[in-house]
């Protein structure tokens, strides 16, 4: 340690997504390569001397206590813990959660130090990992509300790679075996026979951390929800969800000296007849074991929905990934063009 392959891989992965803005401190981290990156990890981040950095990933993250605030983070996976180096703007914006963060050093802004808030989740405290639909995100759950974090990778490859690395690191942990006899050492039962209801697919790692994957019923529930939102115009039997992707909706602010662009996180759903944008709660579901009441908001809230037949054209930018798409719809108020074709139609 470190092997040449690891050094090269971590250096390659240390790139901030171009569409997201980060603070000076995180820009500093993104500028480090090879040995400098490892020295930074051991000198400024690692809590134990003999731990090894195994994986680095840039991702948007959400915390259970601040479910509406998405923040950019550099996620560092070591043999002892998962470290989240956070954008310092998150700490200042989140004043009402001051007990959640230690702000002792917040008065050093004018100095030459690059300050960043670091959230640590020790692997020994890890209880479960919930993978989102189509591997677009995953949620890491510890023993309390303070220890629940969702990584919105918006990329199945990044999710898959992180989960693989996490499983490999967890295999190194020496945990005492469960006192009760375990019939299945790796796979848990698929579904609960007592209720007859199919549960999500669970894979129990040798370290006793649960990896929970969504089953096909989640897509069925989503299809039912979409059919409800379309006020019965869609036949549920013929409704197929063709695409589920976590994206951003672009809002352009005008009137200022220069037009500012803000990105609003949205879940985009494409069916055979409609295009939907949903506000999705990525952090509260499924409910953690200690939750005493359901979350304040639903898992899916419809933000916008348009019929594909009203789609006029799709404009594509020429920039590299992530690609920007503009959907232009005909501004038709009526649900059906042939509905009110009376004499009044040809008047004013």
TrEMBL record:
Domain PLEKHM2 PH: 113-178
Chief location category: cytoplasm
Keywords for this protein: Cytoplasm
Top-level taxonomic group: Eukaryota
Alphabetized InterPro entries for the sequence: PH_domain-containing_M2, PH_NISCH_C, PH_PLEKHM2
Pfam families listed in its UniProt record: PH_NISCH_C (PF25625), PH_PLEKHM2 (PF23142)
Residues covered by the Nischarin C-terminal PH domain: 241-347
Taxonomy of the source species: Eukaryota, Metazoa, Chordata, Craniata, Vertebrata
Compartments, record wording: Cytoplasm
Protein name, entry field: NISCH protein
Name of encoding gene: Nisch_1
GO CC, any one term: endosome membrane
Listed GO MF terms: kinesin binding
GO BP terms: Golgi organization; lysosome localization; regulation of protein localization
């Amino acid at each position: 340690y470190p092997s040449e392959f690891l050094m090269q891989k971590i250096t390659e992965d240390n790139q901030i997504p171009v569409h997201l803005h980060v603070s000076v401190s995180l820009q500093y981290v993104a500028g480090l390569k090879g040995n400098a990156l490892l020295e930074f990890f051991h000198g400024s981040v690692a809590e134990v001397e003999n731990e090894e950095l195994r994986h680095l990933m840039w991702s948007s993250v959400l915390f259970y206590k601040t479910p509406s605030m998405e923040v950019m983070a550099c996620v560092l996976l070591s043999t002892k813990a998962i470290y989240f180096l956070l954008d310092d703007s998150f700490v200042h914006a989140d004043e009402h959660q001051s007990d959640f963060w230690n702000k002792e050093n917040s008065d050093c802004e004018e100095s030459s130090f690059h300050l960043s808030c670091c959230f640590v989740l020790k692997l020994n405290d890890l209880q479960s990992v919930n993978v989102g639909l189509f591997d677009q995100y995953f949620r890491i759950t510890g023993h309390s509300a303070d220890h629940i974090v969702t990584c919105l990778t918006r990329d199945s490859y990044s999710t898959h790679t992180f989960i693989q690395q996490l499983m490999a690191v967890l295999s190194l942990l020496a945990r005492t075996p469960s006192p009760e006899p375990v019939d299945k050492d790796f796979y848990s039962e698929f579904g609960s026979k007592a209720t007859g209801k199919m549960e999500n697919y669970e894979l129990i790692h040798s370290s006793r951390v649960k990896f929970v994957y969504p089953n096909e019923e989640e897509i069925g529930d989503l299809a039912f929800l979409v059919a409800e939102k379309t006020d019965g115009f869609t036949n549920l039997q013929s409704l197929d969800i063709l695409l589920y992707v976590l994206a951003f909706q672009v809002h352009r602010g005008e009137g200022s000296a220069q037009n500012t662009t803000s990105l609003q996180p949205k879940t985009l759903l494409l069916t055979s007849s409609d295009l939907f944008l949903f506000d999705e709660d990525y952090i509260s579901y499924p409910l953690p074991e200690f939750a005493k009441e359901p979350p304040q908001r639903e898992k899916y809230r419809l933000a916008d929905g348009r019929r594909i037949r009203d789609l006029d054209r799709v404009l594509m930018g020429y920039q590299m990934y992530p690609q920007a798409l503009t959907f232009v719809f005909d501004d038709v108020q009526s649900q059906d063009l042939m509905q009110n074709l009376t004499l009044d139609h040809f008047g004013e």
